[in-house]
Amino acid sequence: MLSACKGPQQTDPLLAATTACRLPDLEQEARCGSVKVKENPANPASREIEVKFAVLPAQARYKEPDPIVLLAGGPGQHGLKIAAPMSKVFGALNRKRDLIFIDQRGTGQSNGLECPMRELYAEMDKSLDPQAQIAVINRCQQTLAARNDLAGYATHIAVQDFDAIRAKLGAERINLWGGSYGTRAAIEYSRQFPQRVRTLMLDGVAPADMPLPVSIARDGDAMVSNLIEACAKDAACAKRYPDFAQRVDALFTQPTSTLALTDPYSGQKKSYAVPRNAVASALRTPLYAPGMSAMLPQAVARAAAGDGDPMLALSNAFAGGMEDEMSMGMHLAVVCAEDLPQLNDANVAQAAKTRFGTAFVEQYRGMCKGFPQPQIPATYYSPVKHDRPTLVLSGGLDPVTPPAEGNKVTGWFSNAQHLVAPYIGHIVSGQPCASKLIETFVKTEGKEKLDGACLAKLPRPTFYEPPQRPTAVAPKASIAQAGSTK
Length: 486
Prior knowledge:
The longest helix is centred in the middle third of the chain and has 22 residues, at 212-233. The strands form 2 sheets. Strands 1-2-3-5-4-6-7-10-11 form a 9-stranded mixed sheet, with helices on both faces. The protein has a two-stranded antiparallel ribbon with strand order 8-9. It has 486 residues and is α/β, with parallel strands linked by helices. It folds into 2 domains: 14-113 and 151-208 and 380-457, Alpha/Beta hydrolase fold, catalytic domain (Rossmann fold), CATH 3.40.50; 115-147 and 211-376, no CATH class. It has helices spanning 13-17, 83-89, 118-121, 124-127, 130-147, 155-168, 181-192, 212-233, 235-240, 244-253, 276-284, 290-293, 296-304, 309-319, 328-338, 345-352, 359-367, 403-410, 432-443, 453-456, 476-482, and strands at 19-21, 30-38, 48-56, 68-71, 99-102, 174-179, 197-203, 256-262, 269-275, 390-395, 416-421.
């Protein structure tokens, strides 16, 4: 009678709160669930929406009680779609800890606020026109506002959903990782629920007091200067592209650049008058990944000769496909509510002095037309003070969340360490040595001082050199004949 030997049954809250499911590009079976929350907690009559989450269960039979919650960037990135790449980064920790991914309210399956942009890309002329993009967004805003309360998607509200998910899964404490905008959400969660945070990991810090429309210009400009300087110091790059700086500045200062571009739909190549703002955006996007920015000198040289395809290809290689992973309506519901009110004469004037000028300020002001600016708690923008073990990671070549922001936020916490990878761009965690550092940090609960030497050893990608045309070689028969006395 073996059954008589059984102790009391203990039900894993994970099994009770979720059902089996599959996530894109993952062989491992997941568990999916949701919580119902008020769309706008400030409105007593607000409807309820569902916030969806997925769990990659720990692989060991006996798991640790503190799962790892991973918050996506954007704002607007679908949290469930980062499960496949991040499961590799956290694979070692997943042996004994559940990994939790969340489609933040307004993204993906959590009442996604989508703005389909395909109509914009159907015509090359429209896709190059910033005003056309603003018009598409303005129409989308009207459609979204008719069905949703857009004042209910701010970060300080969303983190309360995260805690509802934590409670539903029965976790007393969590290890919280955020990347890019996800760091803003993670910081706010640690403000509201410090007792629930076992460890805090922030990769590519974007605090609430960093208004995106002006910081994008400032930090992007710094990385353009860095790239120009690096090319000048590299013998091969300096020799091949001696006028790289002048060509870059010409592209940034000309009201329009006449460039030959291939229409991706028709396959036809023709000349377009590309507005300065569109050129600036195409130059900025590859800066996120140093491997791509290493190709910019060659792309800029081609653009100076009138061929814009290489530059556009680099931009699309990084940003292409983002529409399927980003909810643009949620992006704007957050930025228009949290970042736009921080714009003032002083920081806009600072942006105007950069190569990008006020292009992003003008773009966001146009796109934010109609989006509400709900009351954001004053504390949201103030430094967070706590002693939770915190690991801050920054890429030295990050064009949007530079180490300076990491330094600032590290100073807020009494138990934080900041590691910089000098030659990595946006998001460091994907580097194998960073993954090992994260593993050590979580396992030791931040009690061990980490040695970031492996991050410093990661090299800067070499500048791209187009292949040389092969030198004409005489056929073998002719060579043989040349050695013959006949």
